[in-house]
Amino acid sequence: MTMRVYLDGRALAVSDATLGAAIDAALTGAGERMIVEALADGSAVPAADLEAPPDRAPYAEELRFRSADRGSMARVTLFEAADALEHVRRLQSQAAEQVRSGRVEEGMKILGEALEGWASVRSAVEMMLGTGLIRAEGTGEGAEGAAGLYARVMERLAASLREVKRSIAEADWSALGDAVAYDLDEHAEAAGRWLRSRAEADAVIAEQEA
Fold first, then answer.
1. What confidence score (pLDDT) does residue 179 get?
2. Is the bond preceding 58 in cis, omega lying within 30 degrees of 0?
3. CA distance 84 to 202
4. In the prediction, which pLDDT does 128 show?
5. In what order do the strands lie in the sheet with 62-68?
6. Domain count of the chain?
7. Is the pLDDT of residue 210 over 70?
8. What pLDDT sits at residue 11?
9. From CA 107, how far away is CA 84, in angstroms rounded?
10. Does the pLDDT of residue 61 top 50, yes or no?
11. Domain ends where: 68, 92, 112?
12. Do residue 106 and residue 30 come from a single domain?
């Protein structure tokens, strides 16, 4: 049984009917573009299969891959991360209000949601830094570069989170409310501003290169 393989609607030739061969063909066909979606008979290919493709053949009757421009993908991700931090700021404000009003348990629950938001943004940014999706040139960051500025943002956040942890351990709810309302909010605002400036700078560079 043969397996049909497509990249952005274009049929690809594959060496065999395994997922691994299809991925190789798709990556070759995509060139500098990123593979952003893989569907097997209409359903998303499991992440585990993408990381370690099984040897069975055929993997599916039909595999469809979709690619995207790396720069465009990075800009969209940066803007989405900035939007996510705006939501984090709202959660932090709510958490601080609850804690200051004596509703500590509810405040801690909301703070947990905010910290999950921070973790998601951090994962997205570190993925882009690790794969070179965040560009360094033309952003006014000088020798420090994107990675250096990001590291400084994370260092400040880590220091504030240590204060949050201390406040919780000592049941110092006044200090906790201040740390969340002021310190964490400042970090979220600064990080969001940086993310948007990165995305906008990359957009300008892309227009200049077009």
1. 95
2. yes
3. 19
4. 79
5. 10-11, 4-7, 62-68, 34-40, 43-44
6. 2
7. no
8. 97
9. 19
10. yes
11. 68
12. no
pLDDT per residue as tens digits for the range 143-202: 456 667 778 888 889 999 999 999 999 999 999 999 999 999 999 999 998 888 888 776
What is the rounded average pLDDT of the residues 78-93? 95
Distance CA 195, CA 200 (A): 9
d(CA 11, CA 34): 17
Same domain, 125 and 196: yes
Task: Tell me the residue length of the chain.
Answer: 210
Alpha carbons 146 and 205: distance in angstroms, whole number: 15
Domain end position, chosen among 53, 68, 83: 68
In the chain the first and final C-alpha atoms are separated, in Å, by 44
Contact 192, 82 (CB under 8 A): yes
Domain that holds residue 60: 4-68
Alpha-carbon radius of gyration of the chain: 22
Taking Cα atoms as reference points, which of 162, 159, 160 lies closest to residue 170? 162
Same domain, 63 and 77: no
Examine the domain organization and report whether 59 and 145 are in the same domain: no
Phi, psi of 184 (to 5 degrees): -65, -35
> Exposed/middle/buried for 27, CB within 10 Å: 0-12, 13-18, 19+?
middle
Cβ atoms within 10 Å of 120's Cβ, excluding its own:
15
